[in-house]
Amino acid sequence: MEKNYSFVDLSMAYFEKKSKIYKEGGYKKAISLKKNKEDYENHLFVFLIDLNICLLPVYLWVLEFLLILTGLIPPRIFDLLFYIMYALLFVVSVILLPLFTTKTKGVTFGGEFLDMRIVNRKNQIVEGLPLLLRQAIGMGIPLMLFGYLFKTAGIVAWWLLNGIVSLVMPNQQTIVDVILGLHLVYEPEVNICFEQAKQEQEICPIDLHIRSNYSDDGYYDVEEIFKQAKELGLETISITDHNCARQNAAALRFASLYGIQYIPGVELDAQYGDLRVRVLGYYIDWEHEIFDALERASLKREKENSLLRVKKFEEYSGVSIDVNSLMETSRFQTITATDITNMVFNNERVRSLSFVKKYIDSTDNINEAMKQFKFHIFGKGGPCYVKGNYPRLEDVIKAIHISGGICVLASWHMDYIDDETIQKIVDKGIDGIECFSPCVQEETISSLLKIAMNNKLLISCGSDYHGPTKQDRHLGQTHCPEKGLQLVRILTNQAN
Predict the structure, then answer these.
(1) Exposure winner among 50, 141, 199, 252, fewest CB in 10 A?
(2) Distance CA 401, CA 118 (A)
C-alpha cells in the first residue's frame, strides 16, 4: 500500500539525507566564509532570516495592537497579549530555533536558503549541545535578556558587537562561535529529491565504472567508496576516474584492507570523427608517464574551454562573470555550464533579465528552469556551446595498450550512436564493450551485446556511480543479470 508522507516527514528526511552526504565526504568540499563583500552580505542575509523567525511572535503582537487601536479587540486584554507574546518569543527563540538547528545538524532557516551549515573547526558535522548553546546563547537569550533589561538599545548593541567581531574574525565567527569553536561554511552543491519508491534493483557483485573525488564531478573519496562497496557485498570494483589515474594508488591499498578485488582503471575522453566517446582502461600500469601527460592535457583543455565558455556567455548575455571567484571555488580550475547556470539563477538582478526570465515563466519550478536554460544556452547548437578538442581515439587506445591495459568502450552516449558506427569504433582496436549500464536503454544493451559477441570482445558492467551529484546512479546497480555475470567474470579474471 502506498504511504503518504507529511511535509514534516519529507523535510526531516531531506535534512537527514543532506547531513549524511555532508558527513560522508561533503565536509572536504565545504568552503569557509571569507572576508569579502559577497560573503558578508550572505552571512547578514542568513542572520536576518533567523532573526525574523524569532521575531514572529512580536509581529503577531504588533498586529494585535493594531486591532486594539481599531477597536476590534478590547484594550483590557493588552497586557495579557503582551505576556503571551513574550512567552511565545521565549519558546521560538530560546527553544524552537535551537532545537530545529540541532535536529538539522547545523542548518538554520536562513542557512538553508544559501546552503550554509554551522560546523566545527575542521568543517565537520556538529551535533547536540554545541548547536543548542550556539543558537540559544547567540540568538534567543540575548534577544530576551537585553530586550528586557535595556530595551531595543540593548539588543542593537549586542548585534553591533557581534557584527564587529564577525568583521574581524577570519571566517566571520560571532562571539559565541569563537567560544564554542564553530563557524559557518558553504555546503557543496547536491541535488536531493524524493520520488515514489520503485522496485529495488538487485546489487551486482561487480561494478567496474565508478568515479571518486579525483574526478571533477565525483563526490566520495576512495576509502568511502570501498566502505560502501563492502556494505553492499561487492566482490570486484574498479574506480575509473575521468582522465585521471592517480586514484589507483589509494585504491590498491584499500582493496586488501576491505577484502575486495580491485582492477586498476581509468576513463579517457576520445575523439572519433565528430563524435566524442569514452574509453575505459582496465589493468593499466597507472604509474606510467602517459597518464600524467593525459591528465595535464585534460586540465589545460578544460581550463581553456572554461574561459571560452565564459567569453561566449558574456558576449551573448552582456553579463560579466567574476572568473577569479568561480575559479577559487573549483578544485580543477574550471567553470562549467552548471557553475554559470547557478550563478545566473542565484543573482536576483540577472534572474530578472528577459533571456533568463522566459525559462522561469515557462516551467513549473526553478530546477526545471535551470535545466532548460543550461540545455538551450550551453548544449550542442546553443549560443554558448563549446566544443572540446579531445585526443584521437586511436591515440587513446594506444596509450592504454602501452600501459599494459585493456581498452573497453564505455556505454556513455551509446544510445545515440548507430551500430555501424560502433562497429567502426571497435575496429580501431577496442578489446571490450561496457554492455551493462544504467546509462543506456535495454535496446542498446542488446545491440552492444550482439556486437561484442560477434567480435569476440570482453564484456563489462558498471554503474557509472558519481555519488550524490548524480542521484539516478547507485553503486552496484549495473543492470547486469545473473547470466551476464558469467560473461563479465571473463574480464575480471584476466589478472589470474
Answers:
(1) 199
(2) 49
